[in-house]
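User: Please predict the structure of the protein below. I'd like the answer in structure-token form so I can feed it into my own downstream comparison script.

Assistant: Understood. Taking the following sequence of 444 residues as input:
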Amino acid sequence: MKRIVILGGGESGAGAAVLAKLKGFDVFLSDKSALKPDYKALLDEHEIAWEELQHTEALILNADEVIKSPGIPDTAPVVRKLIGKGVKIISEIEFAGRFTNSRMICITGSNGKTTTTTLIYHILRNAGLDVGLAGNIGNSLALQVALEPHAYYVVELSSFQLDHMFEFKADIAVLLNITPDHLDRYDYTFQNYVDAKFRITQNQTADDAFIFWENDPVIREELQKRTLGAQLYPFALERTGKTKAFIEQDQLVIKTLNSFFSMPQTELALQGLHNTYNSMAAGLTATILDVKKDNIRQSLLDFKGVEHRLEYVATVRNVQYINDSKATNVNSCWYALQSMKTPVVLILGGTDKGNDYSEIESLVNEKVRALIFMGVDNRPLHAFFDGKVADISDVQSMEEAVQVAYKVARPGDTVLLSPCCASFDLFKNYEDRGRQFKDHVRNL
């Protein structure tokens, strides 16, 4: 019997374990951290052997194949030993893809992927399609394939998930943008990260679709080096000969061989430049899947947005507070600042992944009145911003950050949490960071 070992017992690992067990494999799950009670119960229910707080090499290195959590780097000692032994290491998505013929709509990009994924899911569900939400959000794809199969899956893919995908194919692949991120996981070599993102196009044929931002300089340069099998669906603000979604006379227009769709840009539920791109990508996806125009229009009109992404929290003493905790890289913060219409008190900081803050320098100069650095080590932030903004504070907790923001903000300002950094120095994750921000703002 083939032995499958799963490293990491979170959503993806537990789901992969259940699918592997149901398919008749010898399954063992190991996690260096503590497992959540829900996942322990799920594993026990399916009689899957597991361990927590350790990796027992005798039970791992005898694997025929390993399904690795995207959060575990290839540099982890147990992973290095597996690679040294020549054991094949795959992702949960790769494994799940072997056991389903459902249509796969896959979304990646440095920024905007959660919003776009959720919006596509919203449109397809409202159109009455049998659709599941998976990948970086929603439930594990493997678990859904095992217990709750759907005809369509909308899958958000991080570069880490794409790294260990080989045979899996996206029927519709969406690549929103590529800017430097996670370089600490890619030997500080940007091309390695670019290559990971482009894995979303692998195995695509002429029957498949590749949707991408036409004006992204990195994507544009990469497309000149590659020959892709899929049909191309570029989107951009301004139309060129090949653009399939664009803005014309304040209308969002989608024009493909078989379809023409338009609606006023002002009616889109998601406002701001980056959200216009997200709406274009989602609208193109729905058009390719022959969703009725009325359904697309209504869903683009009534979509509620994503928690922790430019999320309005409250207005206190005529100062509005915006939670953009999901901005874990510099480019995300650029989009947030670019959409601000008032002076900004900006909360930055966390685990620096080799960030280049020059990308937001001009917007900080133009819009930011005060900076609040919230992290264990704020030296990289000080090295870049000292002398550029007059009012800079250091804080060590979210409560302190909100209190300082409350003191320095003036009526008419916006306090923006858009950290540019990962959250693991002071918080469990970006959700924890965002929820703490909201809780402390509501307590003002």
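That's the full token string. The CA atoms of residues 365 and 388 lie 7 Å apart.
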